[in-house]
Design a protein that fits this description.
The protein contains four helices and three strands, in the order H-E-H-E-E-H-H. The chain is elongated and about 60 Å long. The longest helix has 15 residues. It has about 110 residues and is α/β, with parallel strands linked by helices. The chain has a three-stranded parallel β-sheet with strand order 1-2-3, with helices on one face. The relative contact order is 0.12. It has two domains: about 60 residues, 3-Layer(aba) Sandwich (Rossmann fold); about 45 residues.
């Protein structure tokens, strides 16, 4: 289907996470705009969040890239905090968040 769209010379292609890889494989000139719930860097959709590269751009609803900054901001706001609680569902982000929290805690003499 991605090749069909390229053949029709569309002005741009809008994709979800799964279709983005097919669209990237089909063209390097037609703009591809993705919507994904995952991390676009981790999923190979873009090279980095700062410089997407190529003909691909989009929006992600993943918070993985923001988690380190969230913890840093929390520590700046309440620097003497010894315990931070996080309530979240079982998602792919949970192990990353826990690992980050443990590393951050160790650097401040916790855990």
């Amino acid at each position: 289907m991605a090749a069909d769209l390229v053949g029709k010379r569309v002005a741009a292609t809008v994709t979800n996470n799964i279709a983005t890889a097919a669209a990237k494989a089909a063209t390097s000139t037609i703009p591809i705009v993705f919507v994904t719930g995952g991390d676009p860097v981790e999923n190979g959709l873009v090279t980095s969040l700062n410089r997407l590269g190529g003909n691909v751009t989009g929006v992600s609803f993943s918070s993985n890239p923001l988690n380190p900054r969230r913890l840093e901001l929390l520590h700046e706001l309440v620097p003497k905090t010894a315990v931070i609680g996080a309530l979240m569902t079982q998602t792919s982000e949970r192990p990353l968040f826990e690992s980050l929290a443990r590393r951050r805690g160790r650097s401040h003499g916790k855990f």
